Structures are given as structure tokens and as C-alpha cells.
């Protein structure tokens, strides 16, 4: 079947707008994700230049795979293993309190258990890239706070992956077969263990086989082949394909080729095309009317889940003798939601658990947490 030419113009409009707005956001000291989502709102609901379609949705969904694969490539266990217990405790504490806060608001406002679960799950995870970028912007690169926050956010990524796995399995099998959800939970934990041991060693040797190839781009093609196969297998065994992409990224990151060869190639095609397309497309289906109508709920959600991270990840750091400023800085650093929140919201929207109005609430809350984080960091700098 011939390609519809309209989709070419749609992608061109989305991509150029996403990159322009992303650049503006970066210059204003915000994450480019903010600009990309605002670009989607602009060309979609506001101006009506681009409309959602099945083909655009399929193309944009590749952005999730690229993003999770890159996060996996950059989740280096060796860099934070000395802080793994403290980081894991604080990450889990923050995740649990955030889930409860999101669930109570979702269930209390909409009187629906599944909506409560989705809002809770969507608010669990912090955007590692946004939190660390915000710290770098105020001169905290490689500081004590930066290292501790890296440990917490890395553990938080693992919690988010497990939450996403459990949620997608619940959508697939339902609560009737809860044992399958429990089995998946332990299966994912087991797969993490295998990746950190046998998997990473095997993958390093396998990738090395292609390091002498004359084709300069083979180390782009081979990792992508592996990602797509693992994502395919993951989907067929009941684990979301994006989880497979994340895990295989972790399996590859111990190879000396990962950081200097594979990651730059994947970043070029990912951040140059698929990832901004994904975030911009995620905003095409926002309901502007709902944004106004539910503004009070959005603000309540942002305040509740921000406080949850401040308490769970920041103030509980006192247990480990974190100083007052460290507690506040780490707590603020855990406030911005991002990639996983949007992915969870899109999954829930696709299976019909969320309406467009509630989807708008989630995306709007994510944007607000991203915007307020660098502002709060500026105030926290003055804490003694």
C-alpha cells in the first residue's frame, strides 16, 4: 500500500516544531521535553495543523523503545552500587508515598479503582535526566548531592520499570489472575540479576565480534536488531516491549563499545527523530477544555506528589545522616516526573482505562513538576 503523503507533512511539522520549542526550553533552563510537549499542544489542539492517526502513533511509539534503551545504556550499576541500599530504600519510600498520593486523588475524585492505580503508578517515577540536568545547571555536577541523587534516581528507574511491568500485566490479565502478576514481578527481578551477571558478560563479547567490521554503521544495526527482537519476545511473554529495551540496554552498558560507539549512534537517531516525535505526539491528543476544567485537580496532584517525594526521598535521608540541605536538594531533585509517567499514561489511554480528559491531567501534572523543579532548586541553594 502506498504511503499517504499527508503523513510526511505531519511528521515534518511535528519534528521541526518540537526541535524549535525544545531549543527554546533548553535556553530557558528547562528540559527540552517541556518544549516538545508544548510543541505537540501547539500544532495539535491549539492550531489544528496535525491530527492523531494510527500510522503516526506507530511511528511515534518507536521513541519509547529508543528512550528506554538509552536509559538502560546509561544505568550503570557500578557507579552507584556503594549507595545502592540507601538509594533503594529512599527510592522505594518515595515511590510508595507517591503511589498512595496519586491513587487517593484518582480514586477520590473519579471514584474508580483503575484510574486511581494509573494515577498512582504514573506519579511513582522521577525523570533522572531532568533532575540531574537541573542540578548541573546550578553547579552541582559530581557533587555529594549529585552522587547521592544519582543512586536514588537509578534505583527509582528500576522501581518504575517494575511498576510499568506490573501495570501492563494487570491490563492484560486482570486481577483474576493475580498470580501471573506476582510471577512477572519475580521474573523481572530475576532478569535484572541475570543481566548484572551473565547477560552483561555475554553481550560484551557478542558486540565485540562486530567491532572490526568494515561497515561503520554495523554497531548501530546490530544493537537495534537485538532491541527489536528482545522487545518482540518481551511482548509475547507478557512483559512490555519497552521493559525489554531497557533491560537489554543494561545488558550492553558494560561493553566498552556502549558509551563511545553505540550510545552516540542511538542518540543521533533517537533524539534527532523518534524521541521528540514521541513526546510531541503524546500532546496531540490533549483536551484543552479539560486542562481548564480540571486545573484545581492538576495543582492538587502536583502538590501532593511533590510533597511525597520530598518526604520519602528527601527528609527520610535523615536516617542516613544526610544534612538538611542534602535532604531538601535530593527531595526537590526527585520531584520532576517525565518519561515513565507519559509512557504509563499512554498505555492506560490505549487500553481504555484513561479518558482523554484524565490523560490531560497526567500530562499537565508532569509538565508542572518539570517546570517547578529548577525554580525550587534556586531557592534551595540558599539553605544552610
Helix and strand composition category: mainly alpha
Mean pLDDT: 83
Q: How far from one another are the termini?
A: 65 Å
Which segments are poorly predicted (pLDDT under 50) over 5 or more consecutive residues? none
Radius of gyration, taken over Cα atoms and rounded to an integer in Å: 20 Å
Largest sheet: none
In percent terms, what proportion of residues is strand?
under 5%
Q: Give helix % range.
A: over 70%
Shape: globular
Task: Predict the CATH topology.
Answer: Na+/H+ antiporter like fold
Secondary-structure element string: HHHHHHHHHHHHHHHHH
Instruction: Report the CATH architecture.
Output: Up-down Bundle
Query: How many distinct folded domains?
Result: 1
What is the CATH first-level class name? Mainly Alpha
In DSSP terms (H or I, runs of 4 or more residues), the helix count works out at 17
By DSSP, the count of extended strands is 0
Structure explained in plain terms:
By secondary structure, the protein is mostly helical. The protein has a single domain (62-270, 291-380), classed as Na+/H+ antiporter like fold (Up-down Bundle), CATH 1.20.1530. It is built from 17 helices and no strands. The protein has helices spanning 5-27, 32-46, 54-74, 77-80, 84-110, 113-122, 128-137, 144-173, 178-208, 218-236, 241-252, 256-284, 288-293, 295-314, 324-333, 339-350, 356-380. α3 (54-74) packs parallel to α11, α8 packs parallel to α16 and α16 (339-350) packs antiparallel against α17. The radius of gyration is 20 Å and the shape is globular. The N and C termini lie far apart (65 Å). The mean pLDDT is 83.
